[in-house]
Design brief:
12% helix, 9-stranded antiparallel β-sheet, Jelly Rolls, Calnexin lumenal domain, non-globular proline-rich hairpin domain, 8-stranded antiparallel β-sheet, 23 strands
Amino acid sequence: MAGRGLLTVGLLAATASATVYFKENFDDKWESRWVVPINWKTAEEMGEWAHTAGDWFGDAKDKGIKTTEDARFYGLSAKLAKPFSNEGKDLVLQYVVKHEQRLDCGGAYIKLLGPKLDQASFGGDTPYQIMFGPDVCGSTQRTHVIFNYPQAKAEEKNLLIKQDVPTRTDQLSHLYTLHLIAANNSFNVLIDGESVRAGALEGAWDFSPPKTILDPAQSKPADWVDEAMMVDSEDVKPAGWDDIPATVPDAEAAQPEDWDEEEDGTWEAPMVDNPEYMGPWTPKMVANPAYKGAWEHPHIANPEYFEDPKLHARAKEVTAVGFELWQVKSGTMFDDIILTDSLEEANAYAKDTFWAKKEGEKAMLDAAEALRVEKEKAEREEMMKNAEANGEDMGEEDGEGMFSASDIDITEVDEDDEDWEEDEDGEDAEETTFTDEL
């Protein structure tokens, strides 16, 4: 496959105007470049990585790395040939993630690491500059975009994006791209080449305190009237209003013929709602002539606010990339990492790698799923036939026999799978995976 030859690490002049800081396609020598943090967790807590094309693929020779053990920590880091900073330059971090398992809880993000990295001890507490990528646990499904910002006024310096970014949780490979744009201090997050969140950096993270604050010297005047309506002082409760009962005897009810007053007592008609009852009386409300509207607290400039014209420069003396993960259920794959200052260069790399294998991978998964569904159907029919021959109650009428739809785990593949995109209100739309359980 074109572009799958040699690993490229370091500063490469990819084009006349682009610089590639790091590139990894996980060839057969990948282990010589990546370090497992042996001092982070015990050997029993650490999961093993497999070098594989996966269970479905576009090219059997095109391999990535895959988590293989459930409920384990996973750590790896790889050094750049030379540290870099992106002040005054765009930054593009891009890689491919595939969840071959039905992921219920686990991270799949990548980190950019600084100059003080100890690879043997790299772990969750190791300082990082950027953390980017999918994180799924139960109903929480998002793509992390976290920046370390030492100038932040808050105690926490690792800043999460304020509005969650959607992610993908199906069983196919997906291309995750983070683009920081130097020209206007903006950002763009793309999945499979389509933007899922973009905007100004300043508004999307709490880099600085707000520009204005409530004026502490101001308060609502004591005589301020903010009630728009008032009781009509001329409205009087009608005479006899409280004399109307809520219920009355049912005029259509009749004493039963077998009623015995000596044994049953005096018969009384049942009570029914009184159609004339109008409930508790309340006076009418009228417009309040003294109403001044809702009081708005005046704002003043926040003395702690500051502007940072270099918000895009989130990579400072980056020396390595790394994975530091916890996975309840293993089976996540990583491939085709590129770190560059050019979105065009990242797109060209994706064209030769991710896009070149996408259709073949999907076709292989579709075929595998079709065979699995057919096999499960045949097995179920055979089991039902054997049970019927043995005189066992199948319970088809009440659904409580040997088998029910909940016993069968069927996977269907959605040809379009567009539901992950945001709806018009800006809220993350409900996601549809390729594996729907019946």
